[in-house]
Every structure is written in structure tokens, then in C-alpha cells.
Amino acid sequence: MLDNHDNRNLSDVFRELQEIQQSQAVNAKRKTKARKSFAFPFHVNHTNHPYKNSDLKLSHIIIGCGILIVGLAVFFPKNTSFTQSYAKEENMSEISEYELNRHRLNIQSIISENADMDRVKEQVTEEREVEFITEYNNTPTLPKSEEVIKQEGVLGKDNITAVKTYENGNFVEEIILKREKLVEPIPKIIDIGTSEFLAKHKVHLGDVMYLVNNGNLKKEAEDSSEDVAEIKKSLDVKLLDLTSEEWCKVSFDGMEGYIKTSNLTSSYTTPNIIEKNRVQRILIKVNIDLELNRTSGLTLNDYKKIFTGIPNDTNKIFQDNYTAFYNAEKKYNINGIFLASIAIHESGWGTSQIASEKKNLFGYGSYDATPYESSFDFADYSEGIETVAKSLVKYYLNPSGTKIYDGETAAAWYYNGPTLKGVNTRYASDKEWHAKVFKYMEMLYNRLQ
Questions:
Q1: Do 67 and 126 share a domain, yes or no?
Q2: Which of 150, 264, 364, 412 could form a disulfide with 189 if both were Cys (CB 3.0 to 4.6 A apart)?
Q3: Which runs of consecutive H residues, i.e. helices, occur in 271-315?
Q4: What residues of the chain score a pLDDT lower than 70?
């Protein structure tokens, strides 16, 4: 009857137990029938019956043997086996329903695994960090969808008393018994922009913006408000605040006020606005009181643009010599447009006899009595331009002792201020000379637009 039972499953064990119980029941019935068949026909006092105690002891022995057999099957499966089964098929189907899968169970292995399980609980008290929350604020002074961290979050701290459970050295669960707040966490605050105007032009408060058209700086953010200043097209303003999507506060040359957002652009939206602003910044300084002992701020390309294609320059004298005016400006620190305007006024756009024959655009050296005879001859127009520039810088435009070109200082013999009116005092007998020259200056400057 001995067999290898390493592969017995739980159903086999239950079947064997049931067979033992059924076998015991059958034996009990047989004994009962046997007693009845040998019963005496007269009354027997069962109290003193010599067989009663023997029957009870035999029953106990049978039951004990059955239990012993089951115990041997459970604890020593490798050496014991049941080869016969009296269980009914219907009972077998009921037992099989308890199986959760079709794999055979090793009872010894299950008992061994559960016996070896190490479950430990411990109580701990420790400080733990507490995560901070993040708050989001809609901000109309930021470009739409842009996020700016206004406040960094700081972790809090709690004192925790807890019971931790471990199985075989692995953490399983935790039950918190007590929580004591030590440090409150500080939330992280993020501002989220909502301004479509700022997003469109890719600008922020404090950035430079430019006027699309001429506009007025207002005292308040409304059309009917008092004007603070007039601002020309392409001029720059500093963005101070955004009061609404329609109005913003700006600073213009030290003056603060309000202007409509619809009249503003940026270098992102209008890439060539920076160059236009440069020119406009030069033009707004052009006035009859402009200081002429300083450069104009124009580039060589500006000079080319100004002097190319002027209708009155029929002989193209100024177009061909714009470089000479630019070089004189840089070398002698004099406004080259002023120098050219004198040449235009004195030579009639280079058509005078002195200009044509003596290459003298200024009538330099001439006197009213003998203008042609007394005027200087120059090898070319550029020589005359440079000579007059040096003379104006040394005698008319700078105070005495001012350091000028080639290590020299200004003599200031005819100095009456560095403006057109100051030069007019000793340079020309015509009292309106300065106004006439200034008209040419305005005309030339405006060709930059």
C-alpha cells in the first residue's frame, strides 16, 4: 500500500478522510446487527453487562487508528498512501469545487512556508517632511499663459508616531497613531499671465515699445484726458504698467502718462521699427537751436540716402560728394548736414560761377565788393568742404581753448554760440541767413523718412 505521495492534492486527502469515516460507520452497523442476532430472550441488566465496556473500547480504538492514519498521511506523505476509495462520485465533485486552480498542492510545503513566516510590528516616532501645495494666480500684467514663480514652496515638518508591520523583513503596512505639527509648509505661488496684448508683442513690463502713428501722451487712461506730450511715429516709450487691454502707462523722455495699446508695437511684431526709431530720434532733435559742434549721428548710408537723387542737384555735385561731408563730420566733430546746407545756400546747389570754376561751394574767402576775385580756388570739392569745416570748428563753433583736431585748440575769434544764430552773427551779413540755412537742413534730414 505504500506509494510516493509528493504529488497528492487536497482532494485526495479529503477523499481519504471521507473513506475512513464511511468505513467506521459500516463497522459500527455490523456490530449492532451482530448484537441483535445473539440477543437473549430475557431481560439483561446492561449496567453489569460484561461486553459493554469492551465494545466501547473497541470503538475508541478504531477511531484512534483512523485519526492516526490521517495524521501519518498528513505529516509523512512520502511513505503512506490509501489505495482504495469508498467515496461516492457526487462527493468527489463537491470537494473539487474547493480547489482554486488545477495545480496540485503540496500540503507539507504550505505548512512549512506559513510556519517560517516572520511577522514583526514596531512602534516608531520620527520627524517627517510635509509636502507643500502649489497655488496659481491669474495675472493681467504677464503675457497670456506665461508662468512666473512668485514664491518658492518650502516643505513643512510633522512629528509622527506610528506602528509599522514587516513580513520577512519587508515593509507591509503602517498605522499612524499620532501626528504633531512642527513646521507649517509654505505654498508655492505661481503667477499665470492673462494679457493677450503682451503675448502678441512678446513684451513685459519695463520693455521698450514703439508708436505706430503719431499720438498724444494722456494724463489719465481715457480719451478725454489732458495731453501731457505729443509723441511722433516710431518713437520709443518704456512700458510701465498695463491698466487694461486698451490702455497702458508709459514713460517718454522722463514724462509719464497713458497711451492706447492699439498705437504700440514691438521689435518682435515690427522688426524694422528699431531702425525707424533711430532715425526718428535724430529727427526730433533737429531744430534751429541745434548745437552744431557735434556729429549728426547719421551713418554713411544715411548720407547716401539723403544726397542721392535730389532733383535740385542737377549737376550731381552733392550726390557725388556726400562722402566728403560725412568724413568732415567724423574728423572735425561738426554737423555734416549743417555744412552741406551752407554749401547749398551759398552755391545755389553748386550752380554758381565760383562753385563751378573754383570748386568752392561756400564762396570761402570772398568779400561783398569782389566776391569772385577774393574767393579761394580748390583742387576739388572735397578740399573746399574740409577747409571750411576746419575754419568753422576753430573760429565759430567752439569756445576758446576747446580741444579740436590735430592737437589744436579753438581760437573762437567769431564764437557766439554753437547754433545757427550764433554763427550768423559774424559769418554772414544777411540777418536771416540762419533761417535760410535751417530750411535746407530740415529738407535734407526729412529725406531719411
A1: no
A2: 150
A3: 273-283, 300-307
A4: 1-18, 20-21, 23-62, 64-66, 69-117
